[in-house]
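Subject: Sanity check before I submit

Could someone independently write out the structure tokens for this chain? I want to compare against mine line by line before I put it in a report. The sequence has 176 residues.
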Amino acid sequence: MISLNQPQKDIRVGMIAGAVFCMVWVLMGYGFIDMALPLWVTTGDKLAYVAKCEIFAALMLLFGVMAVAGQRFFSDKAREGQTEGLSSALTINLRYIQNTMEQLVLLVITHMAFAATADSGEMKIIPILVSLFIVGRICFWIGYHQSPLSRAFGFAVTFYPTVVMMIMTVWRLVGV
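---
Independent answer below. Compare away.
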């Protein structure tokens, strides 16, 4: 058995809690939220719907860029393009932007591919997952500012659902 140090144990707890939170969020979304979905005639209709949902996920990236822009305005080093010696808050926000971009790209590609393979009834998952992404990014950002180890929960909440959807969609596409 592998021996974990305390920070690794803390990260594991955050990742497991994030996975459980995701399952509860999705189940509650399906069980308690009654949303009227439009009738999709074509794959293009479904892709347009996904794009409309994803704009809300993209707000998480926009907010990060806005925060960094404001911080750079008041930092001589950052305004000059330096990356060394920046404040901890600015460094964390830059890392938040980078991670959010990575997660957002995976999210959008996965949701678009899913929509191309989904029937109309399955499309309810998209706004549920986008709302989960938003909650996860907020938790990641706040957690990161508290302690780098505290970002694990938010990372799990944005990463795991995308991985599950990607595996499911690839499974459909290869027809296994």
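---
OP: Matches mine. For the report I'm noting this point. The two ends are 34 Å apart (CA to CA).
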